[in-house]
Amino acid sequence: MNKLVKTTLVGLLLLGALYFGQHQLQQPAVAVSGDRLVPQFIVDPFWPQPLPNKWLLGRTIGVAVDPRDHIYIVHRDQDSMFMAQELALDLGRAECCTAAPPIIEFDRDGNLIRAWGGPGEGYTWPESNHGIEIAPNGDVWIGGNGGGDSHVLVFTQEGDFIREIGIAGEDIDSNSTTHFSRVAEIAIDPVANEAYLADGYGNKRVAVLDVATGAFKRYWGAYGNRPSDDRVAYVPGAALPQQFVGPVHCAEPSHDNLIYVCDRGADRIQVFRPDGTFVKEGLVAPLTLSGSAWDIAFSKDADQEFIFLADGSNHKVHILDRQSLEVLAEFGEGGRQPGLFFGTHSIVTDSHGDLYTTETYEGKRVQKFINQGLKPLATSHRGAPWPASALH
Description:
This protein is mainly beta. It has helices spanning 3-25, 88-91; strands spanning 30-31, 37-44, 55-56, 59-65, 71-76, 98-99, 103-106, 112-116, 129-134, 140-144, 151-155, 161-166, 183-189, 194-199, 205-210, 216-220, 248-253, 259-263, 268-272, 278-283, 295-298, 306-311, 316-321, 327-331, 344-349, 355-359, 365-376. The chain has one domain (48-375): 6 Propeller (Neuraminidase), CATH 2.120.10. Helix content is 7%, strand content 38%. The radius of gyration is 21 Å and the shape is globular.
C-alpha cells in the first residue's frame, strides 16, 4: 500500500472517529426539574493543546479567568502526586515525564502562554496548592490547603512575588484577624475591590480582605453566626448545622451584590449580603455524605440567571436557577473520556459563556465546555442522565 493511500485511509478513520465522538457528545440533556430552557454545552476534546517539555499535570485544583479570557490553573506538582514511572525523566531513567510548573496560563484556544511558581525567596510557598484568582489589575492570588497553609500569596502575571497575606504555619482559629487556615478558594469583587476567601479547610468561615493592601476587613460563619472551630456533622434529613461543616469551599460575589458560599460538607449553598447577613440557602444532592457543593460559577447573561455547581463527589456539574437555588439539570458522570469527570473540583465561565472545569484526585486535568446556548431539556425513559454523554 503506497504512502498516499495510507495517509488517505488514516485521515478517513480520524474523521469518522471524530464524527462518531461528536455525535455521542451531543446527546440531549436530562431535566431534573421543570420544563424550561437551560444552557447546554459540548466538550472540546482538544483543549488545551499538549504541554511542552514532557510536562504532566498533577491533581488540578483551582481555575480562574482574566478579562482577556486567558485561563489560569493551579495544580499539585509535588513528587508525591505522581507515580514514580511518570517522573522517570526526573529520575534519569526514561524520556517521559516531568511535573509541570504549578501555575499555568492558557489563551482561549488552549495554547500555553506561561508557566511558573514554586518555592522562592521572600515568601512561603503552599504545602498543597488549591485556589487561584485573578485581580482586576492582573495580579494572581493563590491559597493553599496544606497543614501549614494559613496565608495567601499575591504575584504578578509573570510570577513575580508581590505580597504574603497572613502568617504561615499558624493553628486553626476561625476568629483570627491575622491569619487563615487552609484557604480553599478566592474570589474578587472588582467593584468593591474586596477579596472573599473561603477559609476553608481548617477555619470555618468567609473572610474578606482589601485587594489593594491585603488588609483584613471582616468575617462570618454559617447563617452569619460567629464561627466556631468545633467540629459539626451533617446528617441528611436532620436539622441543618448552625455552623459550616466545611470545607468552606467557595465564596463567590454576584453582580447584584450577594455572596454565594459553598459549604461542601453540608451539601449546601448559603447566600449572604457582603456584610455577612444571611439571605437564604439551598441543598444540592442532599444525600451525598462526602459533600456535593465544591465550587460555583455564574452564567454570563446580565442577570446571571444560572449557577453552575461543580460536584466532585458525584462527578458532575449541576445547573441551578440562581434565584431559587433549584437544581434544573446536570451533566457529566464518572469517567475519563472527554466530557466525563473524576473529582470535579473547580469551575469558571469566560466572557463567551464557555465553562472550564478542573479535576483533582486521579482526574488530573482541565476541560473546556463550549456554550451551545439555551435549549430545551430532554428526559430519558428512566428519568436519569444519558450514559457516557458529555452534553446534557
